[in-house]
């Protein structure tokens, strides 16, 4: 009975966070900031804000960097509709401070140039151009001294976007919190909670065009919770993405089949995802499959690897 009350309390806290955050601002820039950049997060429907505790924390929730105890590097690669995606993350711990860096890039080559003809139809000029988005990230996390097992973190990021012969750039900042919900009956089965404010300082990117067009990335508030079951072999995660016009609820779960093999499933944007992972002392590899956000008949595969020392 106490454990049921503990779970209901956890869900209640998440609901309170969701309603207390209020409306947030919207914008257009920085599409790359909303990608699921690694296979683990993709398989969980991106519901990782409360559970991420590795080098990808610099992207998902900088508070998670405080849980990194060793040096680690992780990388992810995938392709989709001609786009090439790469991500690289580094993290470590220095005198109790979790530190992390990251690089994420998406690019497409050979986009065919077209112009509008006199009849209003598109005409192929025979030329082509490229489009590239990049983001560099640096973050840090520390324990909150007056609250047990609570971490706070921040990420500074610099974004660039090039299209045709034009370019834009801007910088922004994320902040995050992570902690545990006490379970006095079973302390080892405490649930986890987390909150990320994506673009707490919103990146504004000015294009080097004649009109000097400016685009500002939207702020997103992401509260989430992770609850363990079956002696921590099963974790269920849920997360809310709160934006100015739309709110999105995401779900995920991971189950340890063996001490070194894990199965994952998630749901986000009305599409499902599955994945698996192999986890060893110094090395892990994750794979994910997702339905496409554009066409449910299309599929998206991602591969991520992580090494610790």
* N-C termini distance: 42 Å
Helix count, DSSP H or I runs of 4 or more residues:
3
Lateral strand order in the biggest sheet: 1-2-3-4-5-6-7-10-11-12-13-14-15-16
Q: Which strand-content bin applies to the residues?
A: over 45%
Poorly predicted ranges (pLDDT <50, ≥5 residues)? 1-28
Shape: globular
Rg from alpha-carbon coordinates: 20 Å
Task: State the secondary-structure class.
Answer: mainly beta
Order of helices and strands: HHHEEEEEEEEEEEEEEEE
Tally of strands:
16
Helix content: under 10%
Largest sheet: 14 strands, antiparallel, barrel
Can you describe what's shown?
With 309 residues, this protein is mainly beta. The protein is built from three helices and 16 strands. Strands 1-2-3-4-5-6-7-10-11-12-13-14-15-16 form a 14-stranded antiparallel β-barrel. Mean pLDDT is 85; it is low at 1-28.
């Amino acid at each position: 009975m106490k454990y049921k009350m503990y779970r209901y309390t956890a869900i209640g806290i998440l609901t309170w966070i969701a309603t207390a955050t209020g409306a947030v601002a919207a914008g257009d820039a920085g599409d790359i900031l909303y990608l699921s950049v690694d296979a683990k997060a993709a398989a969980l429907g991106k519901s990782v804000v409360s559970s991420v505790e590795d080098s990808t924390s610099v992207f998902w929730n900088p508070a998670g960097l405080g849980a990194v105890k060793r040096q680690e590097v992780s990388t992810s690669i995938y392709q989709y509709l001609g786009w090439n995606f790469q991500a690289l993350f580094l993290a470590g711990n220095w005198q109790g401070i979790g530190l992390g860096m990251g690089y994420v890039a998406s690019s497409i080559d050979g986009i065919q140039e077209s112009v509008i003809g006199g009849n209003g139809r598109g005409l192929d000029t025979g030329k082509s151009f490229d489009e590239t988005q990049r983001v560099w990230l640096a973050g840090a996390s520390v324990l909150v001294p007056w609250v047990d097992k609570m971490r706070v973190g921040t990420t500074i990021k610099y974004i660039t976007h090039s299209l045709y012969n034009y370019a834009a750039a801007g910088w922004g900042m994320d902040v995050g919190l992570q902690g545990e919900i006490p379970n006095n009956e079973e302390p080892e089965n405490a649930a986890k909670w987390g909150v990320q404010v994506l673009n707490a300082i919103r990146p504004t990117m000015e294009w080097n065009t004649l009109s000097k067009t400016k685009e500002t990335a939207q702020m997103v508030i992401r509260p989430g919770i992770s609850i363990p079951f079956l002696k921590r072999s099963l974790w269920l995660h849920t997360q809310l993405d709160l934006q100015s016009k739309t709110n999105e609820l995401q779900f995920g779960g991971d189950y340890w089949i063996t001490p070194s093999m894990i199965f994952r499933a998630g749901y986000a944007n009305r599409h499902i995802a599955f994945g698996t992972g192999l986890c060893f002392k110094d090395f892990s590899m994750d794979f994910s499959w997702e339905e496409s956000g554009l066409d449910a008949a299309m599929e998206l595969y991602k591969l991520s690897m992580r090494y610790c020392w």
